[in-house]
Amino acid sequence: MSLKTGAAQVTSAVLTWGLRHVAHRPAANLPGDVALKVDPAIVEHLRGKVSEASVMVVGTNGKTSVSNLLADALQLAGKSVICNRTGANLASGIATALLQQPKSQWGVFECDELWLAEMLPQTRARYVLLLNLFRDQLDRCGEIRRIQDSIIGALASSPETVLVYNGDDPLCARIAAEAPNRSVAYGVQGSMGLAQNTVADAQMCQHCGAMVQYRYRQYGQLGDYFCPQCGFSRPQLACQARAVEFSAKGVSFEACDEARGCCMPLSAAAGTPYLVYNYLAIFALLSQAGVKTGRLQQAISQFNPGNGRLQSYQLQGRPVLLNLAKNPTGFNQNLKIITQDAGPKAVAFFINDQIVDGRDISWIWDIDFEELAGQPGTAVFAGGSRKNDLQVRLKYAGLRAQLVEGIEEVFSQVSADGQLPADAGMYAIANYTALPVVHQALDAMAAQEAAGAKAAAGAEGGAADAPGAPAAASTAAGSADGEAGAAASAASTDAAPQQADAAQPPVVIAHLFPDLLNLYGDGGNVRILQQRLAWRGVPSEVRRVEHGQSVDLADVDLVFMGGGPDREQKLASEELLAMRDNLAAYVEADGPLLAICGGYQILGHRWLWGDELVEGLSIVDLETRRPGTSADRLVDNLVLESPLAQTPVVGYENHAGHTYLGEGVPPFGKVISQTGAGNNEQDQADGVRYRNVVGTYSHGPLLSKNPEVADWLLSRALERRAQRTGTPAAPLAPLNDAEELQANHVMQTRLGL
């Protein structure tokens, strides 16, 4: 042992003792973080503490639960295990686990996807277990392609490592196809019959650029996919989940590895579709590693997460379910749990925007909150540092949410208002950094109740399968300043839609290529425009123009174009070039058009695709290019002063290309915040205005906190409808925009304005 390694171990031990016994903190990161400063190769130097094999668990959703349950299953199979059970999945967390825990036969290490390239060569893990890849933290991680390339590079650096991966995910399958390592696929055989959500990733084949098709889709991009052009398809599944059934008892299926002669029934009381994939992943890893799988069901039945993931409580006479969700797919799966509970209930969402959460929360507009709107007797609450943005999103889903500072306030409000039965269930869904706070508060409440009743039975908080879980948990298929809103029912908002005048022709909104250009929740802009018309009793029609389709813009009153990943944006630009004359005529006739990010770039002469300049539509005099040799992205909150709104325009930018306007072409707005650059790093301006065109890098989506801009566009759309149909153009009736303006004000305040 080197002096550095010894010093690192001593330092870590002292810190661990101090954190646990003096500061009463879990000591899951800091000891490893400090040890890495003393000995940067501490993980490599300590990998010998694992005698048989180790596995790195990676993926967007489910890493912590899978790692913990896999460790439990290994221990029940008679193996000793080192595991970073708290979810501390960076180098510091892995180092801490190796430093604190005794020598063992197996190592189970949860690892952040972008850290795998550094950790895998040091641990020399025998297996990488890849669960899934969903769009997540775009401001930190960038596009999914970056994560894929990082994982491929990590695997190439450890050629003996075996990749066990979700074959139902085309994004994971692309990694397996390009990595040199041996790989083993698992997946679900046959459709689970699930309702599909609005937004899914991986619409395009990453090999040839054609649109991927599905024989059946499970959720998100998971399913039996194939490319009709190049033949890329779901791989042969070495391990399968068969005969998946959801019932009042939860979920059951048969896990099979026929090549190894291993098939076994598995079941869980929490009937959520993603658990089928989680349990199958563990079965596949154990089977491939030659570890006995017979105790897996016991591990599932006994699993007590204790970390806020699908954890249940019984508090104040109410069953409570707490779970993590940090991206649209995770939230949508949680909503399916909640909506299976048809009775009265309280639902609280908590969203923070710390660095590890992602500063950009535009993704909340890709969550199908509308599924809750049809359930009367549901009280909805919004908390966390971005509670105001969440309240606005829920408002446009038809949900009137009350702002809360914490989960304790949810209990207080529900009890004080008497709006729910005393035994109505409660659901708390929180993102990454919000979860520990909610979890700690619920644990404290449980401990207080237990102490008061002198009954130890309630002190544990319960496992996911505990009888205290709300009905849907056992039967389902599947802090900023600002005060606005009051206790709510899921069935109503302050601005209920008026009855549309049947005599009026609808305002026609063309949403161009939403299957390709919806990277930053941009489709929320269309939802906002349509809802603001509905609240005024104005009929509308949204025409989704998808890949391979066309539209006659002579019959359209407003056009919207969003932003997308590079490959999808390139395909969309080719489609748009084919309709350039149609779109140019629409613009020159003063047709209103809103273009965000990539859609904005395409309007110009040229735009940047990787290192290549691509022909644009040349409808507006602007060009997007890379400044010199810089590859830096412009990523931050920004606030604009725009002639289209009296209130400053608040948004978020995330783009690599720098845009330059032609001589005399006005921007959408001037950047007035200390953060954010806008078009480029020199001009202190964002976007463009040309006739009735608004182009901008500001998403979030743009219109969610900027109702004046939304109404400016709608006024132009009503003028065009009047010209097109002969219908008189009436002025827009005012709306109550208290929530939108409060969210705007909160962000201005945070940014020092």
TrEMBL record:
Active site: 360, 597 (nucleophile), 699
Residues that, per the record, bind Zn(2+): 205, 208, 227, 230
Domain Mur ligase central: residue ranges: 57-192
Chain sites annotated for binding substrate: 633
Recorded superkingdom: Bacteria
Annotated PROSITE patterns: GATASE_COBBQ, GATASE_TYPE_1
Annotated keywords: ATP-binding, Cell shape, Cell wall biogenesis/degradation, Glutamine amidotransferase, Hydrolase, Ligase, Metal-binding, Nucleotide-binding, Peptidoglycan synthesis, Zinc
SUPFAM superfamilies associated with the record: Class I glutamine amidotransferase-like, MurD-like peptide ligases, catalytic domain
InterPro entries: Class_I_gatase-like, CobQ_GATase1, GATase_3, Lipid_II_synth_GatD, Lipid_II_synth_MurT, Mur-like_cat_sf, Mur_ligase_cen, MurT_C
Pathway assigned to this chain's UniProt record: Cell wall biogenesis; peptidoglycan biosynthesis
UniProt GO BP: cell wall organization; cobalamin biosynthetic process; peptidoglycan biosynthetic process; regulation of cell shape
Domain Lipid II isoglutaminyl synthase (glutamine-hydrolyzing) subunit MurT C-terminal stretches: 324-435
All copies of domain CobB/CobQ-like glutamine amidotransferase, residue ranges: 509-706
Catalytic activity: L-glutamine + H2O = L-glutamate + NH4(+); beta-D-GlcNAc-(1->4)-Mur2Ac(oyl-L-Ala-gamma-D-O-P-Glu-L-Lys-D-Ala-D-Ala)-di-trans,octa-cis-undecaprenyl diphosphate + NH4(+) = beta-D-GlcNAc-(1->4)-Mur2Ac(oyl-L-Ala-D-isoglutaminyl-L-Lys-D-Ala-D-Ala)-di-trans,octa-cis-undecaprenyl diphosphate + phosphate + H(+); beta-D-GlcNAc-(1->4)-Mur2Ac(oyl-L-Ala-gamma-D-Glu-L-Lys-D-Ala-D-Ala)-di-trans,octa-cis-undecaprenyl diphosphate + ATP = beta-D-GlcNAc-(1->4)-Mur2Ac(oyl-L-Ala-gamma-D-O-P-Glu-L-Lys-D-Ala-D-Ala)-di-trans,octa-cis-undecaprenyl diphosphate + ADP; beta-D-GlcNAc-(1->4)-Mur2Ac(oyl-L-Ala-gamma-D-Glu-L-Lys-D-Ala-D-Ala)-di-trans,octa-cis-undecaprenyl diphosphate + L-glutamine + ATP + H2O = beta-D-GlcNAc-(1->4)-Mur2Ac(oyl-L-Ala-D-isoglutaminyl-L-Lys-D-Ala-D-Ala)-di-trans,octa-cis-undecaprenyl diphosphate + L-glutamate + ADP + phosphate + H(+)
One MF term in the entry's GO annotations: ATP binding
Its EC number(s): 6.3.5.13, 3.5.1.2
Record function comment: The lipid II isoglutaminyl synthase complex catalyzes the formation of alpha-D-isoglutamine in the cell wall lipid II stem peptide. The MurT subunit catalyzes the ATP-dependent amidation of D-glutamate residue of lipid II, converting it to an isoglutamine residue.
Oligomer status and interactors: Forms a heterodimer with GatD. Forms a heterodimer with MurT.
Family note: Belongs to the CobB/CobQ family. GatD subfamily.
Protein name: Multifunctional fusion protein
Organism of provenance: Parvibacter caecicola
